[in-house]
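subagent[fold] <- orchestrator: predict structure for attached chain, return tokens only, no commentary.
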Amino acid sequence: MIQNQREYNVTKGQIELLESARIHSQTAEGKVDPRVYRAMIAGIEDQLRELREQLHEYDELGRARSLSLTRTEDLPQTLVKARVARGYTQKELAKRLNVRPQQVQRYEATGYRSASLKRVLEVMRALDLKLEAEIPLR
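subagent[fold] -> orchestrator:
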């Protein structure tokens, strides 16, 4: 998942490189085994599709009205998505939390594993999130 504008720009650059590679790989057609050529093109197409999906997801977050959270394991990624949806940079969230931007970067890079429950709740408040949940008692 793309977490910030820098990663977004890098992803766009990767797409341009892969599109260029796809065009240049057409010169290999007929010079290599057809199965190898098809596999090469399929690999490039798969990477392009995945990167475009990531760009699309990042763009869509800017228009999101709500986010879905069905598993507690997804909370860290949902916090990142919420930050992006709110239009906050990592630096802006850090300022709201009164921590260094590198701390927010670490939290997000590690899936908030080092963050206490208190800190996660502070992040949710800083992002102005309202969590509604139903917890089934099997």
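orchestrator: received. Logging for downstream: Residues 34-61 form the longest helix (28 residues). The radius of gyration is 20 Å.
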